[in-house]
Structures are given as structure tokens and as C-alpha cells.
User: Which sequence fits this backbone?
């Protein structure tokens, strides 16, 4: 569900007939060498690639179309055409100590690529498998919070803008771009309706399929079956190519337009992204090293691998949130509104001498936020300097204010230099991306011996070698 | 005359069964219990029995510190004044009344965990980071077990060889703070109760010692005249492992592998039984046709109640392949509907002898 700020932004966009920015800082890393990949699938063949367009930001695409992707050899030929591009790109990024970034048009296109990667990894052809493995890096990273490897243009734009239409409608890239840059002098809804007529994901329009594409493919297949000459086959292939280029080029161009919008100077630097870029580079290196060592990517995770991946995802979510709260102004204000950030005035600092040279400090804070997420025992950290950690001892609502007392756990020296009256923002502990690796290593050790509960064999019952009391229930009740 | 239901007697019977299972050395017990039925009391008693009567090291797992404190209070009041160990992180603020418990022993690290018969309570997070790869306890009791996601249970499961998991599956699902769709798996296709019902019915057929006439040849009904057909290999295995040596001649296979084979009597595991969905695979008319056409004399179809409702709720996805108008999913759906309607109309639907619970769809009352 959209938060309050987002709802207000959407209403503003609806009022203005134009999308409104909802952040002032860039929300994603845009690699200068990012690749744009646009794929079209044949209707009813969800994991096919009928056409592919590949290129870099600011460059026209290289396009390849297969007449009928249901012919395996032809389909593999298209995929083989794609492989060297990705092989070279990944090698270039590995050598530079950075990470590859692939842009697709929408969440649907992202899902298609992810599914394709899984399927291709398990074909019989080594080069096709290799392409699947390379794409699997992007696919596996895509659901991880903070990842920068596989970017959906609609998702990236929606992190920066709010439109006046429903969120699901924003998934049409053409519609979303129209809201962001509406044509002058035209009703926004009429303009969006026009934009929506152009496919922007991986599927072609069913009417186009039935009336135009399907007859062209039938003609091609008939020509093949009747052993038509090479020139006849080329003619039919060219016809299909022209039809699909008419669909794929606008999608590629729209993705470029999204990147252009997000590269604009209006978006200020976001320090939270630096840690995410570093993390992405580490993940990429780890992935490529594992491939080089011959570790294969299983279709299904073992229980141990699944558990480790889930914990990695959870930690990523909390790290991304913690980073955003520190560096992203919009995220910070959303946190204040939602209550996940405590914005409080420092009312009092109480010093208690425990023993010589050891003092304990208690902070007394007051906040006028309405919905704070606070419990006694919670540990909060300041989101700005000075770095303090406070354990909440007491939370009490008095009239319009919430009074909080907490014991300083870290940053006592800073507290000594503080005086009441200032405003502090508190939230979760700072992100620790390196810590995730240590934690997962510990998990891996913990799971060295797989428990029988997560294996295929159940141990036999082992009866106790003692006589059971006749009235067991009474005997146990006497213990309680 | 039906006796009135006695909830206390039922609870006592369930508790006695759980307690007795520990004497039998059962590797795992799962106790599903609604709110207010006394789950934590069961955990308390199982732990006390384990440490005091069975001489075991018992670890108790809670989901939160508050639950650990609560269980500590209960266990500390034991009649033997047995020490109760609380495994908690250093620096954790314990409630005053817990701190004052005379038989409380607070343990912060693995080196101080008891090696003698004892009870140690800790929350799942604390247990999961324990630095050992070997079991340290004889029994693991998990309170509010349905609040523990499987991947977190995996982290603590090897700390003991036997488990008692107590919880309420009808309350709030565990919260996982990330997207986990990748690991969502299909509901288990093997229905052990249905397999048991099927095998019991085969036994009943054979017990009658009946004679059969097949193409004019009269003979006794024997196991080799019987076949069982299922949609999934897991269902086939579930039936096979229940047949026993006396029924080893009963032919059990999937529909795919039963093609071209016949038996005088067929027992069919309905492809939609127990499912909350109706996919193209399970609706496939061809598969249904194979399953219903292997018998020569008699065919029985076994399934959970609710298949009819499940079919009525079905909504086809509508995916069409380029240029193909045929819709096998829709055809299969109509075939299944026709079958169920025909069986109902001719009065050939009967309740299971051993009494199976309804499918999820029927249980949800939709």
C-alpha cells in the first residue's frame, strides 16, 4: 500500500496532469556502460526469444530476429548471437572491478529474462547454458533489495516519480513516460491511451499476432516445408523482421528515454548508493569466481542454500533501509511520517557515576510524532553525526508529546559535549554489508551437518530403556 | 446415544499421547492446538518429563524473549525446584521477577550450557547462532512452532535428535521480511491418508475372497488382478510403501506409465484430490481418460471431498498459443465436471470408510 506521501504525490500529479518527482536524490546507480536488452517472446511460447535488441545508452540497438522461435536450431542461433556480447561485457566489468548492469523495459520483461535464464541453464548445449548462467547473475540478484544488476525501467522511474494513474498502470513504460513528459496541449489521459497502444514488455499485441504476424510466420513455414529457394525464405524472414522491429525498436527507445530522464542533473547524489555499488561489485566477483571454479547453479536450492539466501535477502532489506534513512532525505521524511524514525528534541541529559571514571548517561527526549514504533528495550542509533546508540527504557505519552528516556550504549563522549535543545533523528543501526558475509559464513558452519528434519531420511524411534509409569499423566502433573 | 464432548478429557488424552511418545522415542511429534488449549502447559510438562523422568537434556525454543521469560516463570515453579537455565545474550535486561527466581541459572555462552539432565530455555534467534555443529541436547521442544519459519528451524534443528513442535497453524503466519516466492513449493502431492484408505480398500476387496468373471473366465480376485493409478510419482510411492509384502503384486503406477496396461480392478487416485488449484496438468482430459479406462471389471476413484467445488471455482488462465484455438485446459475441466456430475447423478459417491478430512477448498467452505 502506498504511504501517505506517495498518495499525496499521486493526487498532485492527477491535479496537474503530469507526474511529480517524489525524491530529489537519485535512487539507483546508473552504470555508464549499462546494456539495454529488449526481448520479444512469441505468444504462447513464454520462454522463447522471437526478437532481441541489444545496445548501450545513447547508441542504436543491434537487432536480431528469428522467423519462428519454435524451431530450436533457429532459436539457438539467436541466443548464440547474444552470448559474445554478454561474455565480453561481463569480462570487461570483472577486469575493471565493477559490475554489469542490464536495463529492461518493465517488471514483466525482468521476469521474462529471469525465467529464460533458468531454462537456458539446463539445455544440452554448452554455449546456451553459458548464456543462461550469465543471465542468471542478473536474475538471481533482481529480487534482492538494493541490487543494481538488473534494472526495470518502470521500477526505476517509479522510484523517482508519482503519476496520477494506478500503480499497476505505471508498469506500461510508454504510459509512464507520457505522464513524466506529457505532450503539450493534449489531454493527459488521451495521450496515455495512445501510448498504451504500443506494446512495451515482451509480448506483442494479440490482434497484431492474429492479423499480421501469424500469417507471416505461416507463410514462412510453408515456404520452408515446400523447399522454397533461399531468396524466398529470405523474403519471408525479412517480412517478419520488419514486423517485429516495428515493435522492438520503440521499446528499446523508451528504455533509453527512461535512462536519460534518470541521468539528468536534477537528481542529486545519494551517498546510500555508494555502498550498494560496492556490494554489487563484490557479489558479481563472487558469482564469476564461482563459475570459473565450476560450481554449477542448481535449479532448486538445497535447504541449506535456501536458508542462507533467505537470510541474505533479509539482511539486504534491513541494510538498504538503514542506508536510505541515513542518506536519502525523502526516505528519512517518510520514516518520520510512518514512525520508523524517531525525531525528538533533546530535553535533558542525566549523568550517573557508576564508579571512578565510569559514567552512565540517560537521555530524555520528547517527540510530537503520532505513530512511533517504539518499545522498551529497543536499540536506536542517531542517523546523523554524532553517532549515538540508545536503549529505550521508558516511553510515555503525555498530551501531544511522547516522552522517551533511554540509556546511552555508544557515543558517551559525544553525549558529554551535547546540550539540551537540539533535535536528533534516531533509527536502525548503520548498514553493515560486510557483516552479511560474516553472518552467512557462520550460518554455513552452523549448517555443516544437515539436520534429519531437512533430509529424506527419518531416524527410527528409539524407545527409552526405562519403565513408563502406569499413570503417566499423574506422574508428570506431580512435577509441575 | 452420542456422549457429550469433554474438552478436558480430550486435552488430557492428547497430552498423555505426547508424553508417551517420548518414552517410545518417537523422533518428532507435531502438536497442532487451537488457542487456549494449553499448548505452553504441554511444553512445560514435556520438558519436565524429559529432564526429571527420562534423564535427558532438554532445550526449549521460544520465538521471543517474552515467551522465554513466561516459560521460565512456569518451569521455575516445578515441584522439585529443579534449576531452570535461561540461554540469553549477555546484557539482556531480564524482568525483575524472573531475576529473583531462586532456581534460575542464566547462561550466556555455549561453554556454560549444562551437560547433565536439565531444561534450558532460549529464543530461536539465540539458539541459531550457537557455535557448534553437533547436537548438544537430547530433546528439542519448540513452543509456538508455527511462528518459526522453516529456514530458521533448520538453523536449530540439529541441536537435538528428537523434536516436539507445539503450535497453532491457524494463527498469524511467520513474518519474513523479504520476497520468498522463489522457494514457494507446490503443496505436497502425496496424501498419506488417502493412500492408506486406498490400500485398506484393496485389502477389503481381497478379504471377501470373491470370484470374478473376465471374458467368461472365472477366477479368484488376487493382488495381481488389481492396479492403482495416480497422477504423481510421489502418490505412487505413498501407496506402494503401504501395500506390504502380501500385496506386492498389485501394480501401482502413474497414468503416463499405465498407458497400454489393464487390470481387472482399478483403484484411481483422483488427480484433483487435495489440491487447492486446478492446473492444466491435473485437468488434462487425456490423463483422466487413461485413468478411467484401465479396468476391465471394476473401477473405484478415491479423492478428498471438495473436488466438485474446486472445479466450480476454476477460472481458466486463457493463455493461447499463436494460431491455435484448441483449449485443452478447458476441455479437461469440462471432462472432470461431466465425470463428477455423472457419479453424483447415479448415486455412486460414497464417504470413505476410514473417514478422511475434506480438501482445503471444502474446508474453507468456499
Assistant:
Amino acid at each position: 500500500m502506498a504511504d501517505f506521501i506517495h498518495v499525496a504525490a499521486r493526487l498532485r500529479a492527477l491535479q496537474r496532469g503530469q507526474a511529480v518527482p517524489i525524491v530529489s536524490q537519485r535512487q539507483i546507480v546508473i552504470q555508464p556502460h549499462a546494456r539495454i536488452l529488449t526481448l520479444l517472446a512469441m505468444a504462447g511460447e513464454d520462454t522463447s526469444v522471437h526478437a532481441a535488441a541489444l545496445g548501450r545508452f545513447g547508441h542504436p540497438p543491434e537487432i536480431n530476429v528469428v522467423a519462428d522461435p519454435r524451431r530450436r536450431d533457429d532459436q539457438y542461433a539467436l541466443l548464440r548471437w547474444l552470448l559474445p556480447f554478454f561474455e565480453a561485457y561481463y569480462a570487461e566489468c570483472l577486469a575493471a572491478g565493477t559490475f554489469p548492469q542490464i536495463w529492461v523495459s518493465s517488471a514483466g520483461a525482468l521476469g521474462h529474462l529471469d525465467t529464460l535464464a533458468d531454462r537456458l541453464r539446463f539445455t544440452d548445449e554448452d554455449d546456451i547454458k553459458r548464456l543462461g548462467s550469465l543471465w542468471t547473475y542478473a536474475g538471481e540478484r533482481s529480487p534482492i533489495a538494493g541490487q543494481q544488476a538488473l534494472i526495470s525501467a518502470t521500477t526505476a522511474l517509479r522510484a523517482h516519480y508519482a503519476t496520477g494513474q494506478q500503480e499497476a498502470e505505471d508498469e506500461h513504460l510508454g504510459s509512464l513516460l507520457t505522464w513524466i513528459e506529457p505532450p503539450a496541449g493534449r489531454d493527459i489521459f488521451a495521450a496515455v491511451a495512445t501510448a498504451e497502444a504500443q506494446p512495451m514488455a515482451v509480448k506483442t499485441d494479440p490482434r497484431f499476432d492474429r492479423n499480421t504476424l501469424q500469417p507471416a510466420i505461416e507463410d514462412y513455414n510453408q515456404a520452408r516445408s515446400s523447399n522454397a529457394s533461399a531468396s524466398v525464405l529470405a523474403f519471408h524472414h525479412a517480412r517478419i523482421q520488419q514486423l517485429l522491429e516495428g515493435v522492438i525498436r520503440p521499446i528499446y527507445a523508451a528504455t533509453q528515454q527512461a535512462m536519460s530522464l534518470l541521468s539528468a542533473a536534477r537528481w542529486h547524489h545519494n551517498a546510500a548508493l555508494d555502498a550498494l555499488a560496492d556490494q554489487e561489485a563484490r557479489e558479481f566477483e563472487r558469482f564469476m569466481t564461482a563459475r570459473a571454479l565450476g560450481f554449477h547453479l542448481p535449479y532448486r536450492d538445497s535447504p541449506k542454500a535456501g536458508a542462507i539466501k533467505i537470510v541474505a535477502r533479509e539482511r539486504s532489506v534491513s541494510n538498504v533501509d538503514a542506508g536510505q534513512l541515513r542518506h536519502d532525505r525523502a526516505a528519512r521524511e517518510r520514516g518520520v511520517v510512518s514512525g520508523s524514525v524517531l525525531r525528538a528534541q533533546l530535553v535533558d541529559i542525566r549523568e550517573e557515576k557508576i564508579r571512578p571514571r565510569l559514567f552512565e548517561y540517560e537521555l530524555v527526549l520528547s517527540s510530537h510524532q503520532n505513530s512511533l514504533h517504539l518499545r522498551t528495550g529497543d536499540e536506536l542509533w542517531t542517523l546523523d553525526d554524532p553517532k549515538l546508540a540508545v536503549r529505550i527504557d521508558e516511553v510515555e505519552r503525555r498530551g501531544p508529546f511522547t516522552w522517551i528516556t533511554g540509556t546511552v550504549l555508544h557515543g558517551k563522549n559525544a553525549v558529554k559535549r551535547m546540550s539540551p535543545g537540539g533535535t536528533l533523528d534516531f533509527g536502525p543501526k548503520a548498514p553493515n554489508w560486510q557483516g552479511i558475509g560474516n553472518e552467512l559464513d557462520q550460518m554455513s558452519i552452523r549448517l555443516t551437518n544437515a539436520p534429519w528434519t531437512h533430509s529424506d531420511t527419518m531416524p527410527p524411534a528409539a524407545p527409552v530403556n526405562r519403565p513408563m509409569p502406569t499413570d503417566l499423566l499423574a506422574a508428570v502433573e506431580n512435577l509441575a | 446415544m452420542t456422549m457429550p464432548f469433554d474438552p478436558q478429557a480430550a486435552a488430557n488424552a492428547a497430552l498423555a499421547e505426547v508424553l508417551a511418545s517420548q518414552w517410545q522415542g518417537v523422533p518428532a511429534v507435531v502438536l497442532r492446538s487451537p488457542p487456549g488449549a494449553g499448548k505452553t502447559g504441554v511444553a512445560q510438562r514435556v520438558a519436565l518429563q524429559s529432564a526429571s523422568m527420562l534423564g535427558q537434556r532438554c532445550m526449549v525454543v521460544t520465538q521471543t524473549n517474552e515467551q522465554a521469560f513466561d516459560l521460565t516463570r512456569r518451569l521455575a515453579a516445578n515441584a522439585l525446584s529443579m534449576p531452570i537455565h535461561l540461554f540469553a545474550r549477555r546484557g539482556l535486561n531480564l524482568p525483575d521477577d524472573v531475576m529473583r527466581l531462586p532456581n534460575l541459572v542464566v547462561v550466556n555462552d555455549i561453554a556454560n550450557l549444562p551437560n547433565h539432565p536439565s531444561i534450558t530455555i532460549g529464543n530461536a534467534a539465540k539458539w541459531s547462532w550457537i557455535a557448534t555443529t553437533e547436537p548438544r541436547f537430547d530433546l528439542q521442544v519448540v513452543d509456538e512452532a508455527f511462528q518459526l519459519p522453516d529456514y530458521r528451524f533448520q538453523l536449530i534443528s540439529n541441536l537435538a535428535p528428537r523434536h516436539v513442535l507445539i503450535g497453532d497453524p491457524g494463527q498469524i503466519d511467520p513474518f519474513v521480511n523479504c520476497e520468498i516466492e522463489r522457494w514457494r513449493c507446490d503443496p505436497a502431492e502425496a496424501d498419506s491418508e488417502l493412500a492408506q484408505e486406498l490400500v485398506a480398500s484393496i485389502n477389503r476387496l481381497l478379504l471377501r475372497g470373491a470370484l470374478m468373471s473376465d471374458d467368461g473366465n472365472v477366477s479368484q480376485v488376487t493382488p495381481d488382478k488389481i492396479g492403482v493409478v495416480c497422477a504423481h510419482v510421489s502418490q505412487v510411492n505413498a501407496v506402494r510403501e503401504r501395500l506390504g509384502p502380501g500385496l506386492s503384486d498389485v501394480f501401482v503406477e502413474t497414468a503416463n506409465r499405465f498407458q497400454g496396461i489393464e487390470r481387472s480392478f482399478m483403484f484411481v487416485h483422483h488427480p484433483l484430490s487435495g489440491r487447492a488449484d486446478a492446473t492444466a496438468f491435473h485437468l488434462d482430459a487425456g490423463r483422466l481418460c487413461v485413468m478411467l479406462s484401465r479396468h476391465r471389471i471394476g473401477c473405484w476413484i478415491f479423492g478428498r471431498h471438495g473436488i466438485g467445488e474446486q472445479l466450480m471455482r476454476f477460472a481458466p488462465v486463457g493463455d493461447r498459443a499463436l494460431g491455435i484455438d484448441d483449449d485443452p485446459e478447458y476441455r479437461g475441466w469440462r471432462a472432470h465436471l461431466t465425470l463428477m456430475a455423472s457419479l453424483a447423478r447415479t448415486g455412486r459417491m460414497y464417504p470413505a470408510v476410514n473417514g478422511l478430512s475434506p480438501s482445503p477448498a471444502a474446508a474453507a467452505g468456499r
Summary: The first strand of chain A starts at residue 20 and ends at 21.
